Amino acid sequence: xxxxxxxxxxxxxxxxxxxxxxxxxxxxxxxxxxxxxxxxxxxxxxxxxxxxxxxxxxxxxxxxxxxxxxxxxxxxxxxxxxxxxxxxxxxxxxxxxxxxxxxxxxxxxxx
Length: 111
What we know:
Helix content is 47%, strand content 21%. The chain is of the alpha/beta class.
């Protein structure tokens, strides 16, 4: 992460730190925000003010997405895969309400 953030700061490029659902499950909730805040502090110490966001990509459940939102993620994406559309309406409505309350984007993939 340090190399990515340093390169983005040096080239004045905004960055999206994308965390997969499986990666998020391997890093405990209290640790990840501190890692990201350390990266942001590094970029700011370099004199850069580039936008840095933390994104959950292909989360597998509402609970994981909600936990990421509560941890300070900038955006979340839930991938419900091949579940029947009728079973996706409720979770999608709830996720939309939660994301809206935090003024953040939300994406749900239905294939």
